[in-house]
Design goal:
Number of strands: 9
Oligomer: single chain
Structural class: alpha+beta
CATH architecture of the largest domain: 2-Layer Sandwich
Strand order of the largest sheet: 2-1-3-9-8-7-6-5-4
CATH class of the largest domain: Alpha Beta
Strand content: 15-25%
Radius of gyration: 19 Å
Largest sheet: 9 strands, antiparallel
Distance between the termini: 46 Å
Number of helices: 7
CATH superfamily of the largest domain: START domain
Length: about 290
């Protein structure tokens, strides 16, 4: 049933499509973020092995198409301009990623939080049920996705301060634009972050709350070789713990800094889930570090 609210939300989506399609189709980036393919000075390590930065960009390119498809399933014909350009031009080149990222960002922003919640409501309900089942099957055990990123510029304290300032000031574009699988990341009045995203190899969006003050319950062990730490827990609305993060940083002797990024999931999640979340981490933190360095 088309309610007044749905009509307004969908009309906003149509406006987003009209505005963004013009520059996606022409290749104009309109001050879009720089492509991390140029990723200058960043080195990413997954399972201890160095990863070509172009592969990180390729993962983001693929997820841009997936995110476009997710938005479009409820806005057929209304986001046709920019989203069809992503879906029908599946072989997006690395140089197109900044323009595609900007188009997706603008669509999310104009649809707005209420529209995104309406779009994802069924997914969020289903994923919460799945999360609770996975927690029960895990028996209090956890498995951790780990990625390392080294930058030849910046500092451990400098990035951690930038990261915390973005959270405190509720810089939503900074948070959501870092990965196509981010839909809403917002700082609540009590300081926690509300996150709606597709994590790892999940096929459904999920919603959880991250508390960076709840360090006592973090289940990810800290590495003493990384003295700067940003850690917290992830929970459902009722407080049930579903995971945690322990992101650590250290300055490098020759300049720059190194990040060790760790996210804990219930142990019963499939291995593919963890492997895919490593690429998620590589993408979002690569983009955040790039934003910090700019």
């Amino acid at each position: 049933m088309l309610t007044r609210r749905s009509f307004i939300i969908r009309a906003a989506g149509a406006t987003a499509a009209t505005a963004a399609a013009a520059y996606v189709s022409t290749g104009t980036t309109l001050a879009a973020p720089r492509s991390p393919a140029a990723g200058a000075g960043l080195r990413t390590f997954i399972d201890g092995a160095a990863i070509d930065q172009a592969k990180v960009v390729e993962w983001e390119r693929r997820r841009l198409s997936v995110a476009a498809a997710r938005l479009r399933k409820d806005y057929v014909g209304l986001l046709a301009g920019e989203l069809d350009s992503l879906l029908t031009r599946f072989a997006v080149t690395v140089d197109d990623v900044p323009a595609a990222r900007s188009a997706l960002s603008r669509a999310r922003a104009i649809i707005g939080p209420d529209g995104l919640r309406e779009l994802l409501a069924a997914e969020l309900a289903a994923s919460e049920t799945g999360t609770r089942a996975t927690l029960a099957a895990s028996g209090g055990r956890w498995v951790v996705a780990v990625v390392e990123i080294a930058s030849d510029r910046g500092s451990a304290e400098g990035f951690a301060d930038w990261f915390d300032r973005a959270r405190v000031t509720d810089a939503r574009a900074v948070w959501t634009d870092a990965c196509p699988d981010h839909y809403i990341i917002a700082t609540l009045p009590d300081g926690r972050q509300e996150v709606i995203e597709v994590t790892g190899g999940a096929v459904l969006a999920s919603r959880f709350l991250v508390d960076y003050t709840d360090t006592a319950r973090v289940m990810v062990p800290a590495d003493p070789a990384y003295p700067v730490t940003v850690a917290g827990t992830a929970s459902l609305d009722d407080g049930e713990l579903i995971g945690g993060v322990c992101h650590q940083f250290r300055d490098e002797p020759g300049g720059g800094f190194r990040s060790q990024l760790k996210v804990a999931f219930p142990a019963a999640v499939p291995g593919l889930y963890i492997a895919e979340h490593q690429w998620h981490l590589a993408t979002e933190f690569g983009n955040w570090i790039g934003a910090y360095l700019r």
